[in-house]
Amino acid sequence: SRQGLLQMQLGDLEAAHEQITAACRGAPGQVFDEELLLALHMARGNTEAVRAIARGDASPALRAQAWLALGDATAACRLYEREPPEARAEVLDVANDDWIWRMPHTLNLARLWIDAGDPRGREAARQMLTEIERVRGEGVVLGDLAYRAAAAHALLGQSDAALAGLEEALRRGWRHAWWARLDGNLRALAGNRRYAALLESGSRP
Questions:
Q1: Potential cystine with 64: which of 26, 76, 149, 159 (Cβ 3.0-4.6 Å)?
Q2: CB distance 112 to 80 below 8 Å
Q3: What is residue 201's three-state secondary structure?
Q4: Mind listing the pLDDT tens digit for each residue in 2-39?
């Protein structure tokens, strides 16, 4: 599946589909593979496949991401709240293997809460930033964590900090512009020319 992720980074969605589906068949139940398959369906605009995941027996977090991609905030929030994601656990997942891409479930729930006017949303985004700073203090500085910090700042309406975080992510080797284009947590930056230029830079291998 890592080869499939590389194909996603290169923009070859057909080759990625072959690699990722083979990985899912060969080792079913792997969280990374399942998340990457959902992201691939989202990138390809395969609404039926996304809906099948949303209605299936995958983890609540994966199903929540699928419903979020389909535009059903209520269903997504209900599933996320059933087993709330934790900022610390997500940050540690990234810190323990910076090559593996993972979905930002904590920030997704933060966005849903923010959109609903729930103060827990801004607190969740701030908690993500706190956890990232905590591991930075331990000497762990990674592109994927810088990207998550950028998304958290975007949710908090801090566009300059979000753009600075994205620039840092690129400097540290982050190359997942394919996901940033799908990630509604960065929607506050839509239309920003600097943001568009950064994503173009992040699309290059």
A1: 76
A2: yes
A3: helix
A4: 788 888 888 888 888 988 988 888 878 788 889 999 99
Region of 56 on the Ramachandran plot (φ > 0 left; ψ -120 to 50 alpha; else beta): beta
All residues at 6 or more sequence positions from 117 whose CB lies less than 8 Å from its CB, including other chains: none
Structure-token pair, residue 202? 């992040």
3-class SS at 116? coil
The answer to whether the beta carbons of residues 24 and 30 sit under 8 Å apart is yes
179 closest CA partner among 52, 13, 27, 3: 13
Measured from the Cβ of residue 21, the count of other Cβ atoms closer than 10 Å reads 15
Q: Which value, to the nearest 10 degrees, does the dihedral of the CA atoms of residues 100, 104, 106, 111 take?
A: 170
Global model pTM greater than 0.85 = yes
